[in-house]
């Protein structure tokens, strides 16, 4: 397992890295909310391509970040959603809520 983190990769781009599970979720939720609120600009990209493994916690984080961005008036796209997160979204019936980058 690796350390999980959320970081600003570029202006308007946040990157999730590592293993997203119950032990990493709370810290990521807090830090991600801070980064979203501090982000300038009208658009935000959430890059998940560096996520190594995820449970339903990863999907819950994404949905929470989408709510945070909406509350801050930012348009959001999600890039690089890993297959395990995509499968959880499909089973949960929330795929249509995720603004995936084409």
UniProtKB/TrEMBL annotation:
InterPro entries: MlaB-like_STAS (IPR058548), STAS_dom (IPR002645), STAS_dom_sf (IPR036513). Residues 14-102 form the STAS domain. It holds the Pfam family STAS_2. PROSITE patterns: STAS. This is STAS domain-containing protein. It comes from Metapseudomonas resinovorans.
